Amino acid sequence: EVQLVESGGGLVQAGGSLRLSCAASLFTFDDYTISWFRQAPGKEREGISCISPSDGSTYYADSVRGRFTISSDNAKNTVYLQMNSLQPEDTAVYYCAADGILVTTRRCLLAYEYDFWGQGTQVTVSS
Questions:
Q1: Which listed site, 34, 46, 70, 92, has its alpha carbon 20 to 30 Å from 107?
Q2: DSSP3 helix / strand / coil % (the chain, rounded to 5)
Q3: Which residues lie across from 77 on neighbouring strands?
Q4: pLDDT tens across 32-84, in order?
């Protein structure tokens, strides 16, 4: 059974940084695309970044490109999201998701593509 567990959320001031982790229990880590989504109160879930651990290719939404960096440690079956220059509008619950779509194009930021989700971790950025 696929399990995803996020950690690393918290409260940070504007301009600060956080690193989120997504620990995945997958039979074959390399066969999946792992993505990060976020959902703020009253808003739709937004895909922000994805990675294909098999080749390290990545994709970012415009809203986070240049500030966030996704990476993977294949030996630990863990994907990270380094978030820098955080702003209050980044406040949301952050989720990781996995599926075997194996693409790192805009398609990887579509929530309906994913069958497996973590429970989420709260990120709050104060002004």
A1: 92
A2: 15, 50, 35
A3: none
A4: 999 999 999 999 999 999 999 999 999 999 999 999 999 999 999 999 999 99
